[in-house]
Write a structure and sequence with these properties.
The complex is a heterodimer of chains A (about 325) and B (about 700). Chain A contains twelve helices and no strands. The radius of gyration of chain A is 24 Å and the shape is globular. In chain B, helix 14 packs antiparallel against helix 16. Chain B is globular, with a radius of gyration of 31 Å. The chains are: A mainly alpha (about 325), B alpha+beta (about 700).
């Protein structure tokens, strides 16, 4: 197993470099110029633009630019085109803003999907099953941003409480308890909105997974033994149905980056998704490339992790 | 069963923890809940971030808003848009009149027109009854010592903008000191000095070094710059004592002088240079007295002193050198270092009612109340200027109490006016929209025809349907909120029948196709406007339709702004145009309406040309008495309204909506609702605003 892990790890490192090269080329070759050197800006003189282009290495060959980028990123000296701030600390501070949103949304998805899905599977064909199916497909089909806007309007008009941003503006001097609760409230709406589709999808998975397991012979055996129905469902069936979900934990990792660009945009949440979005609009290459690189690294790490987790929880699987 | 219970209880607990937070959050009605300080904060939002927080450099509205709070000018506008004291407690206008000797002519008494003889003639006239009314204004008649004078002549023959210095040795001149400005003194002198004196002198006789400027150009330049009678109006400002900048340093005359010098320093590229161009010198008389000498009679120049005053001690040469040192700038940057490069522009220090605290780019600018403000500390303790680029976010934040003021879109205004949780203020802006006719074209040369065109358009309908009622009809070239606008002038009104009659009197008759025709030519022209302004586009269609109804064939076109200016407006190559002006608060209309301003790229691009109007415009800029100025402005307004070079359409009003809980503290300390102001400035009483826990009944 050890040699498998090392081999697999090295393979992924090579893959990461290939991915970074391709994405570097794609991003730089895409049409559009960084807003700092936009030739249609009437306030910029051509010689100033040439100076800035040289400072940004924009006129060097692609592979040279790639080397510059990699060198600066590894040494931590990479700075944003937009404000000259170092990219990594910038991404880190935005990441810390996004983290609570991600954690809260994930908690909602994972705690809500299981009871909903299991009940639907157990009472298959009932009114409950059919209505959750309907609602789930509804939530999957309706675009999240549309629902978010409706929800914002409803909260604002109905309750007159703020929902935009990470905290109510003007609360800087309030008691810490009020401030904390205010921040928690600001977390609620965006995380519910970003969790809705997740709940809908995951509860469908849980339902189908449970249905598959419930149809197995060993469940029939368990029932035949005379076990009470709860034991059958929650001990024998659920444990086996959980197997595929363990691997999904690993796949959540890349969601840390760019998991909720749209939600962050709508709720004016200063997170990493919005940083990436603004960077794309301004063609801030160092920021786009670095976020992209981190996302790729996390994706590879996530699949790596899920492979390992699978082996750990399912003794039938051996990695070789 | 444990697993089942956990699966049920965990989401319930999570849900409960999340939902309960709702009960802690302040709502619009209970903004002070758990947060009593909220009542002392004022929060405003802006689409764009400020650019440069410096009163002499900024050119955008966001910066202007902050600069107005952080800095004070010497003067300020009151609610009727009349100047009132601010950092200056009083100001007095007087003047010096300089008389140049004219050695080639003889005075009526027989002597040559040198300084001594001129002084003698003028003194004699003052002593006799001839000038009895002037006697009390003229305090002194002096013969000045001869002096060297350097004139800078800009070479306009090519684009290099080279400046040549011409040195003159000026002979002794006579100086009259007057305790008030007398624009008529030239005419009065004509009667005592005789017509001869006013012949243009040979300036070349005084030139010491011409530096290669040819003599013809020199003569014409000098006769303009050094007239025989030169008015030098003088404004003496008495400064307020004991005013301190936010860092504790006392404000004095040196700061005023420094601010003026900073504006005129070419390195700083100040956009305010033209406002201060008429200033000849700013002299510090003593610590609290500043004397401003002007080059010529130009009364609107005093308005420029409403601009904020900079702190000299933070920006003078030694302070700049310290900053260069501290920031370790390179030699090249050091050489070009000007006010624009200073970090002061991101952390300004002024004397205003609010002091700067912090600026987070694209997030928020924070100010705090200036407790020592000379006009009393503001009621709000903190001021926040949030940057929210999305208008929808702004509205949502306003309706939940996270912003205190909102500027609704025209279609939202009616709804906001009905909601009882808000108070709204409508103020007429200093702008107006018009249809300008190219007065040079024969088609539009007759005022009766232009009047007919105006009468054919139903302006009330435009205001009602296009502006949602957010505007007012106007009759002339001044903003309605200023004293210069004459409210007695009647609007032409919508009257297509009279319009048609006027056109028929001018010789236009309907032809077989139903179009108006004269001398075999149909009444046909092209109406244009710029792209990107939906209201103007709507007016374009409405005007076209209104004119078609009385038989005028009008085609319309919309152009991109750059093309619109370059190909049509600047060369005057258009028939009729829809445009708007944003006006200042002064009475000067020279650039917009004087016939000399109708050349290429100038602002009187419709080519309005009326000798009476020109005369009034010139007199208004030379008149320092505001009552007389108002009378002249009303006459000018009437003249332009009669000539109808434009169809004056409407002035738009701007509506602001405020939280109803914001009230104003009156003189005896009670809170009353905020009164509307005549000038339309909602923030006029801002220093006395406060937010209450509950709205006033």
């Amino acid at each position: 197993m050890g040699s498998y892990l090392i081999r697999n790890f090295l393979q992924r490192c090579v893959l990461l470099i290939v991915v970074s090269m391709i994405s570097h080329a794609v991003i730089l070759l895409a049409p559009g110029e960084p807003s700092e050197v936009d030739p249609s800006n009437p306030r910029m003189k051509p010689e100033d633009i040439a100076k800035i282009r040289a400072a940004f290495h924009l006129d060097d060959p692609l592979h040279v630019q790639y080397v510059y980028w990699m060198r600066d990123m590894v040494s931590g000296e990479l700075t944003s085109f937009k404000d000259g701030q170092p990219v990594l600390p910038k991404i880190w501070s935005r990441f810390l803003n996004s983290l609570p949103l991600f954690v809260c949304a994930t908690l909602i998805v994972w705690t809500l999907s299981f009871p909903v899905g299991i009940r639907a599977a157990v009472t298959r064909g009932s009114l409950y099953d059919r209505s959750t199916t309907f609602i789930a497909y509804g939530l999957i089909s309706i675009p999240g941003f549309f629902l978010s806007y409706l929800f914002i309007l409803w909260i604002v008009e109905g309750f007159n409480v703020p929902v935009i941003g990470m905290a109510t503006f003007g609360m800087q001097d309030a008691h810490w308890l009020y401030r904390g609760m205010d921040q928690l409230w600001h977390l609620v709406i965006p995380s519910v909105m970003s969790a809705l589709a997740g709940v809908a999808i995951l509860s469908r998975y849980v339902r189908s997974q449970m249905l598959e397991v419930i149809g197995q012979d060993y469940i029939r055996t368990a029932r035949a033994k005379g076990l009470d129905p709860d034991s059958v469902i929650y001990r024998h069936a659920l444990r086996n149905a959980l197997l595929p979900f363990v691997t999904m934990f690993g796949l959540m990792l890349p969601g840390l980056i760019g998991g909720s660009v749209i939600i962050e945009q709508i709720f004016a949440w200063p997170g990493i998704g919005r940083l990436g979005y603004d960077a794309i609009l301004a063609r801030d290459f160092p920021v786009i490339l670095t976020i992209n690189f981190i996302a790729a690294a996390l994706t590879l790490a996530g699949t790596f992790l899920s492979d390992i987790l699978y082996a750990v929880v399912d003794p039938r699987i051996r990695l070789q | 069963m444990n697993a089942k219970r956990i699966l049920l209880i965990v989401p319930l607990i999570l849900g409960a923890v999340l939902i309960q937070s709702y009960f802690w959050v302040p709502s619009y009605e209970t903004q002070a809940r758990g947060n009593p300080q909220r009542l002392f904060k004022f929060i405003e939002a802006s689409i764009g971030d400020a650019k440069i927080l410096n009163p002499i450099l900024h050119a955008d509205t966001a910066s202007g808003r902050i600069v107005d709070l952080v800095f004070d000018g010497l003067l300020d506008y009151d609610e009727n848009l009349v100047l009132r004291p601010a950092l200056a407690v009083a100001w007095a206008v007087s003047e010096y009149v300089y008389l140049l000797p004219n050695p080639d002519v003889r005075l009526p008494g027989g002597g040559t027109a040198d300084a001594a003889n001129i002084a003698a003639v003028v003194s004699a006239a003052l002593a006799t009854g001839q000038w009895s009314d002037l006697r009390e204004s003229v305090s002194d008649v002096e013969v000045m010592a001869p002096m060297r004078h350097v004139e800078h002549i800009v070479d306009s023959s090519n684009d290099t903008g080279r400046i040549d210095d011409v040195v003159l040795q000026m002979p002794a001149q006579v100086r009259l000191s007057l305790d008030r400005v007398r624009p008529d003194i030239g005419a009065r002198l004509r009667s005592v000095l005789g017509e001869d004196y006013f012949r243009t002198p040979q300036y070349l006789q005084w030139v010491v070094e011409a530096n290669g400027v040819d003599s013809q150009r020199l003569q014409s330049h000098l006769s303009e710059m050094l007239p025989l009678i030169q008015h030098n109006p003088l404004i003496v400002f008495q400064l307020r004592r004991g005013v301190r900048f936010h860092d504790g340093h006392e404000f004095d005359a040196g700061d005023v002088k420094f601010t003026y010098d900073a504006i005129m320093d070419p390195k700083n590229l100040s956009p305010r240079t033209s406002d201060f161009e008429p200033v000849k010198a700013v002299n510090v008389v003593d610590r609290y007295t500043v004397e401003v000498v002007y080059k010529r009679l130009f009364s609107p120049a005093v308005n420029a002193w409403t601009m904020g005053i900079l702190p000299e001690h933070l920006l003078n040469r030694s302070a700049q050198e310290l900053e260069i040192e501290r920031r370790g700038l390179s030699a090249v940057t050091r050489e070009a270092f000007g006010l624009r490069d200073s970090e002061f522009n991101r952390a300004p220090v002024g004397t205003g009612s609010f002091a700067f605290v912090e600026w987070q780019s694209d997030e928020v600018i924070q100010l705090r109340a200036n407790e020592r403000y000379w006009d009393g500390a503001p009621q709000f303790e903190n001021y926040y200027f949030r940057i929210l680029p999305d208008p929808l976010t702004q509205e949502v934040e306003f309706r939940t109490g996270a912003i205190d003021i909102y500027r609704p879109e025209p279609h939202q205004i009616a709804r906001y006016k009905q909601e009882s949780a808000y108070q709204s203020f409508s103020g007429l802006g200093r702008n107006y929209t018009y249809i300008g006719y190219n007065n040079r074209k024969p088609l539009f040369s007759d005022p009766q025809v232009r009047k007919a065109l105006s009468m054919a358009i139903n302006i009330d309908d435009i205001i009602h349907y296009v502006l949602y009622g957010e505007g007012e009809a106007i009759t002339g070239p001044y903003p309605k909120t200023t004293p210069w606008y004459d409210h007695d002038i009647a609007a032409l009104g919508y009257d297509p029948d009279t319009a048609l009659r006027l056109l028929q009197e001018a010789g236009w008759q309907h032809n077989a196709d139903g179009w108006l025709e004269k001398d075999g030519r149909e009444f046909e022209f092209n109406l244009i406007t710029n792209n990107g302004n939906l209201v103007r586009k709507a007016v374009l269609t409405i005007a076209q339709d209104a004119w078609r109804k009385i038989g005028i064939k009008c085609t319309t076109q919309v152009f991109e702004w750059a093309v619109f200016l370059k190909d049509f407006i600047n060369p005057g190559a258009f028939d009729a145009v829809i445009l708007g002006w944003s006006m200042g608060a002064d009475a000067d209309l020279y650039q917009l309406w004087h016939s000399s301003e109708s050349g290429f790229g100038q602002l009187n691009f419709v080519g309005y040309n009326n000798a009476d109007a020109d005369n009034l415009i010139e007199r208004i800029r030379r008149e320092y008495d505001t009552d007389e100025q108002q009378r002249l402005a009303h006459r000018l307004h009437r003249q332009i309204a009669e000539d109808q070079p434009y169809t004056f359409l409407y002035a738009k009003s701007a509506t602001t909506v405020l939280d109803k809980k914001i009230a104003m503290r009156n003189a005896v300390g009670q809170f009353v609702s905020i009164p509307p102001t005549k000038s339309g400035d909602t923030f006029y009483y801002f220093n006395r605003w406060r937010k209450l826990e509950h709205a006033l009944q």
